[in-house]
Amino acid sequence: MATYTNVSYGVKNISTGGSTVTTVASGTLAIASLVVSNTSTSPITCDVYITRSAVNYYVVETATVAVGGSLEVIQGNRLILQASDALVVVASAATSADAWVSGLTAV
To answer: Residues with Cβ < 8 Å from 24, sequence gap 6 or more?
Structure first.
């Protein structure tokens, strides 16, 4: 029987080239919440995608985040990542966003 553990991951100052929030080492990760916050003084856009076997699968692309606001990319559902999957966030302006992920791991 699987053992589940609550986990959370944070990334500060997300880059325009993409910042990896987490890579699943083994088992699975069920993401319950993913929030991207705008920390700059201008509106930004963000992309969120999962890389699996060198292919990027977008969860959201070019989503606008208002000044001082946040975007809850995942809410009310679960997004399941498998071993070796990477969760990546990209911001349209360097160091203009932070991201926070909450979920459960199963091993």
So the answer is: 81, 82, 83, 84, 85, 86, 105
